[in-house]
Structures are given as structure tokens and as C-alpha cells.
Amino acid sequence: MNKIIIYSAFIISTSILLLDKYSEIDINNPKLYYSLLIISTSFFISILNIFSNKKYQKIKTIVTIINIIVIFALYHTFSNFWKTQTIEYQNIENTNKTIDFEMKDIGALGYNRRLIEKTKILPGIDLVKEIDTNKIDLKKWKKVVIDVNELNLKY
């Protein structure tokens, strides 16, 4: 029973992280992202423990500690996710679907900018697709222009 829980948690957390990396699904909450990363890494180590003998226990402990340190360092170094600055349009039929202007702080080089169609799936997880506002059907979208300013920029 414990093995099934370990395998399931590993598969689910790793699948969500891979979907974030290689599909249009976007995890926009750093705490959720790094929690999934820690869960995935921890259960990977647990799976290694199930299939290996006690001979490599010290090595696995050291690898686990190094993984936790690396994840902690990544959190504090690269915790700059895309942040919504303004919500430009909202879908008339589905209020969970919006067109947002987002920015990402890239340090001394300034900010990356993008305009996306965002559909909220779960809290912290969205379906994101970059779009051109010149090509949207204005019959389906209502212009709202809500200033969110998640980067707390002063202008």
C-alpha cells in the first residue's frame, strides 16, 4: 500500500512539472511549483530506497540533502515567474478566461513582456497561450483593463 502511494505521488507531481515545462499549462505560484519539485524529488529518492539495498544509504542521504539545498537556492535565485500587470479583456461566456499583459523581471536586462490568453484551471495553475490582440474576436471579449501590478512597479 505504501509503495502505491509513493509511486502515485511521484507520477502525479512529476507529470504536473513536465506539463508545466513542455505544454501550455503554466504553474504561476512559486510555492506550488517548488512544493511539487520537492515532492517529486523526495519520492524519487524513496523509490530508489525501495529498489536498492542498505549499502548506498549514506549516498542517498547526501543526495537528498544536496537536492533540498539546490531547490532552496533555486527558489531564492530564480523565483521570478511571469506576473500579471493588467487584465486587458475578459471572455463574455467564460469569466475564467482572460487576456492578460504579463511581465517577467530578468534582472539588469529589464523585463520580458507578453500578451496571453489565460484560462484558470485550478488555483495557481493556468492554461496559457500567447496571442495577438489585433486578431481577437471582439464579440467574444469584453474590454475591462484591470490594473493588477503584481510586480509592484511604480509608474
Spans of 5+ residues with little confidence (pLDDT < 50)? Answer: none
Main β-sheet, spatial strand arrangement: 1-5-4-3-2-6
Number of domains: 2
Distance between the termini: 56 Å
Largest sheet: 6 strands, antiparallel
Given the helix and strand composition, which structural class is it?
alpha+beta
Average pLDDT taken over every residue: 84
β content, as a range?
A: 25-35%
Radius of gyration: 20 Å
Number of strands: 6
Residue share in helices? 40-55%
Q: Which features would summarize this protein structure in a list?
A:
six-stranded antiparallel sheet; 2 domains; alpha+beta; 155 residues; 6 strands; elongated; 3 helices
Describe the protein in words.
The protein is α+β, with helices and mostly antiparallel strands. It has two domains: 2-77, no CATH class; 83-147, no CATH class. It is 41% helix and 30% strand. The protein contains three helices and six strands, in the order αβααβββββ. It has helices spanning 2-22, 30-51, 57-77, and strands at 25-27, 83-91, 97-105, 111-122, 125-130, 141-147. The chain has a six-stranded antiparallel beta sheet with strand order 1-5-4-3-2-6. Strand 2 (83-91) and strand 3 form a beta hairpin. The radius of gyration is 20 Å and the shape is elongated. The mean pLDDT is 84.
Describe how the helices and strands are arranged.
Elements: H1 2-22, E1 25-27, H2 30-51, H3 57-77, E2 83-91, E3 97-105, E4 111-122, E5 125-130, E6 141-147
Quick structural overview:
By secondary structure, the protein is an alpha+beta fold.
